[in-house]
Amino acid sequence: MRLLLDSFWRALAYLLMPRVVGLSLLPLLIAGGASLALGWFFWESALAGVRETLEGWSLIEPLLKWIDSGLGPHFRVALAALIVVALAVPVVVVASLMLVALLMTPAIVSLVAERRFSQLERKRGASFWQGALWGLGCTALALVASFVTMPFWLIPGVVLIVPPLIWGWLTTRVMAFDVLAEHASREERRTLMGQYGWQLLLMGIITGFLGAAPSMIWAVSAMTLVFAPLLMAVSVWLYTLVFAFSALWFAHYLLAALQLHRASMTAAVVVDVAPPASPLPDLPGTTL
Fold first, then answer.
1. Average pLDDT over the chain, rounded to whole?
2. Where would a tag sit more exposed on the chain, N or C end, judged by fewer CB atoms within 10 A?
3. pLDDT category, 287, cuts 50, 70, 90?
4. CA angle 139, 95, 257 (to 5 degrees)
């Protein structure tokens, strides 16, 4: 727990460094620009498509008529907008995480290593392509889990629990692998991810709940849906900051854990190879 808290406050301090702020600009420009452009050009057509799909389902038509009688016919537009946003947010979250993992995490790990762990040997236990494939596999599982559980998000309170848990698990798997890829061997990476499994998952879940904060923008009022393309870009900026903090937190924690692991292994080897104590000489006049 001491290591967990120490790495947490160090990550907060590093997040304000100009170098880290500069590193966050490229993922922000790519994901934020793409979100803004897609929303600007395809928002209306996406709303129309969702409304047409909803009204074409005979099973949903009685529900829509009941909603119209209670909330008015304009609520159909808001409902379509909510569905489009619900489908877009997981994609935005994953895109932000992947861009941070690919564009920021290696530089962040190098920064932390230079300032705190300059003597830590780099064993390069995983290549860039291995990390990319690992991230894509974990992302696919997270997206499947998101879309499978999405109908339950309409239950009050579930949307505040299930998505952060999914994104927390994804953050843990991606960040832990990427942070250790350069410095740890394959065996060390597996050992650390097993030994510190629950701490890493806790860090990921906390990050997942921090990442849920941008989604609160959509819960403020239905009026915010009018500005959805712009708010999606703002959400990308917030997601980028959260995942940048996550990369810093995992870097400080895992590099320190790797250093402790190697120190303990070295101490164990020294004890194992120490010469045995010499037997006491026989004293004159004594017999066994």
1. 79
2. C
3. very low
4. 60
Report DSSP state, residue 126. S
Task: Count the neighbouring beta carbons within 10 Å of the beta carbon of residue 249.
Answer: 26
CA atoms of 28 and 104, how far apart (whole Å): 11
Q: What is the dihedral of CA 189, 194, 195, 198, to 10 degrees?
A: 120
Please report, for the chain, the start and end positions of each structural domain, with discontinuous segments joined by +: 2-40+87-265
Contact 98, 91 (CB under 8 A): no
- Residue 227 near residue 179, CB atoms below 8 Å: no
3-state secondary structure of 283: coil
CB 78 within 8 A of CB 47: no
Do 14 and 255 meet the contact criterion of CB atoms below 8 Å apart?
Answer: no
Query: Tell me, what DSSP letter sits at residue 212?
Result: T
pTM of the model: 0.77
Q: How far apart are alpha carbons 207 and 210 in whole angstroms?
A: 5
Helix (H) or strand (E) holding 207: helix 197-211
